[in-house]
From TrEMBL:
Boundaries of every ABC transporter domain copy: 28-274
Gene source species: Nonomuraea guangzhouensis
Alphabetic keyword roster: ATP-binding, Nucleotide-binding, Transport
UniProt keyword annotation of Ion transport present: no
High-level lineage: Bacteria, Bacillati, Actinomycetota, Actinomycetes, Streptosporangiales
Record's protein name: ABC transporter ATP-binding protein
PANTHER family according to UniProt: CONSERVED COMPONENT OF ABC TRANSPORTER FOR NATURAL AMINO ACIDS, CONSERVED COMPONENT OF ABC TRANSPORTER FOR NATURAL AMINO ACIDS-RELATED
SMART domains linked to this entry: AAA
One example GO MF annotation: ATP binding
Length: 306
């Protein structure tokens, strides 16, 4: 186990499993964030803290509000109410590019427009907000060029690390599902973030690339970054997260370690209540089937005894 993993686990060791439980050293603190779409309250998070230097998974049934919450925190969506701080600095209402510049960045799925750019161009775009203001650009072209070169150099380094260097001149749209995920992660690192927020990092990834992607996510923590990710794949959640936060119907309903979180009755209720997309592994599914069969048999027996 890496030192950082051990430190992260030590930080969570004695924490209560309550929604909103305070963390020893939070990098992100959220209070009273709500988002309504017409009559629907998509997000209603009373309080939540993300521990610095850890990998935290955000899980919950479809429509629980995870993506909306991510979008609010990173400035891509507005909140109807609420406050949140990153490193003690208020981020409520701050636009996305400034949130990223402050060190909090989220990954994005490749849009159509980005697919038509090359891999290297995508990386360079990731650094967009690092650039000097246009004013200085006009006045000091030499300095600008030096910065451009530094950005390209950083992009090349990251592409090598993510084994995408051979693809640098290819259109991003030609990459496989897993390579796209690697590019999304590499692009986010262009701003040298402290907190990396990953939206479904394993979605659409071929099993051959799974381990490599998991390794990259763990590396982020081992290099001192904090990772918060939304994911439906419970095997991945168990494999890499130090702590799990569960959302349902917009609110945080439970928190806890990955190996026990799914046995929390509040979590079971939330997933069963959602009637779809329960994040069950094969063995859990089997167990649930057995339980249902046993219950049915007991019921039949009861009926026949009447
Ligand atoms: N722009 C929007 N306009 C109207 N309703 C929206 C909008 N965005 C999200 N919603 C609704 O808000 C709720 C939360 O959606 P959200 O996508 O945040 O959930 P999620 O937990 O990320 O779900 P999934 O796991 O399926 O991605 C859903 O009921 C969704 O239909």
């Amino acid at each position: 186990m890496s030192d950082r993993k051990a430190a992260a686990l030590a930080a969570f060791k004695d924490l209560a499993r309550d929604p909103g439980v305070p963390k020893p050293d939070p990098i992100l603190v959220v209070d009273g964030v709500t988002r309504r779409f017409g009559g629907l309250t998509a997000v209603e998070v009373a309080h939540v803290e993300i521990q610095r230097g850890s990998i935290t998974a955000l899980i919950g049934p479809n429509g629980a509000g995870k993506t909306t919450f991510f979008n609010q925190l990173t400035g891509f969506d507005t909140a109807d109410a609420g406050k949140w701080t990153f490193n003690g600095q208020s981020m409520s209402g701050v636009p996305a590019h400034r949130v990223a510049r402050a060190g909090m960045v989220r990954t994005f799925q490749l849009t159509k427009a980005l697919s038509r750019l090359t891999v290297l161009e995508n990386m360079r775009l990731g650094a967009q907000h690092q650039r000097g203001e246009n004013f200085w650009r006009a006045l000091v072209p030499g300095a600008w060029r030096a910065q451009e070169e530094a950005i390209t150099e950083q992009a090349e380094e990251l592409l090598t690390r993510f084994k995408l260097d051979a693809k640098r001149a290819d259109f991003a749209g030609s990459l496989s599902g897993g390579q796209r995920k690697l590019l999304e992660m590499a692009r986010a690192l262009m701003v040298k973030p402290e907190l990396v927020m990953l939206d479904e990092p394993m979605a659409g990834v071929n099993p051959a690339l799974t381990q490599s992607l998991l390794g990259h996510v763990k590396n982020l923590r081992d290099e001192g970054m904090t990772v918060l990710f939304v994911e439906h794949d419970m095997d991945m959640v168990r494999d890499i997260s130090d702590w799990v936060i569960v959302m349902a119907q917009g609110a945080v309903i439970s928190e806890g370690p990955p190996d026990t979180i799914m046995s929390d009755p509040r979590v079971i209720d939330a997933y069963l209540g959602a009637h779809h997309d329960a994040p069950l592994s094969e063995s859990e599914l089997q167990e649930q089937l057995h339980e249902a069969e046993a219950a049915l048999e007991a019921e039949i027996e009861e009926e026949t005894q009447k």
